[in-house]
Amino acid sequence: MFTPAARLRHTFCELESAMAALSGLITQAADAVPVNACCFPLPDVASGNEHEPVTQIEVSRLDDAAAITAALDGYRQWYIRPGCSTKASFRLPGYLVLPTALKPELQALTEDINRLKGEFRAQVQEAEGRDKKFALVHDTLPGLITLQVYRHLVLLPHSVSRLGFTWANKQIIQKIDKDKLVKQLSDARLSPPPLTDAETWIQCVDREIYDVKRLPPGVELRLRRPVKTHPMVNVRWSEELTPRQQQVKAHLPLLLCQDELPAVTALGNYPPSTTRKRRAARITDEPLIPRLHIYPYRPES
């Protein structure tokens, strides 16, 4: 019977084998016909700088053979890199346009790779508690960054007429039910975080529960959590689909199988020279529970 570490190592070896097959397929295709490819490498985040506010990102560009090499390396960028933060994950926006004839084989390979990524993640999650998960991964595969292994490859399912790369710098806003929040806080009272005094923790949570319960009836709650600046791509389908356009995370180069090249808006530096004006927020700037990013919200009458 396999130990958890042996199972994890076996799945990882299968994943590496599938990735090698994908690299071989793309390399062989590029040797046979010109493959349109482009990547937009982002600067590395130095260790210790991952929590610094993002005010500027300089984007470079690779095309054709250099982009293919970067993409194939980026798909397998799974380990800690010297001097780079392990908390600011590696991203490589871009795309590879491969011949339509390769789609059946490419689709089978990407589905197999994503299945193995899912199995790997499930095996890690079977370990109980954060410390055991960490030990399982890093004793088995030292230096591995699990988030970068978990990320699925994206093979776009339809022919594309346009790829528009851009930056996302938004917030997650979600309605919070007061009664459910009170229950969540009550359940958390007896589970203080590591290195936190139990009595101090209970007092803190009790105060949060009191603050929620004393809200006037007309005030609702919202989760408003900032999301780190990250690249996205707006995909416009060639076919008459609904919706005609879809937004996709651009963590890794997208795979396209089509003979007609899409129009492309390249990823520019951050911040963009022009930004769209957003509607003024109706959520107060003072959080009710700062550690959970919970804010009062009064609906417009």
From TrEMBL:
Protein name, per record: DNA replication terminus site-binding protein
Gene Ontology cellular component list: cytoplasm
Any one Gene Ontology molecular-function term assigned to this protein's record: DNA binding
Record key words, sorted: Cytoplasm, DNA replication, DNA-binding
GO biological process terms, semicolon-separated: DNA replication termination
InterPro entries registered for this protein in UniProt: DNA_replication_term_site-bd, Tus_dom1, Tus_sf
Top-rank taxon: Bacteria
Organism: Oceanisphaera arctica
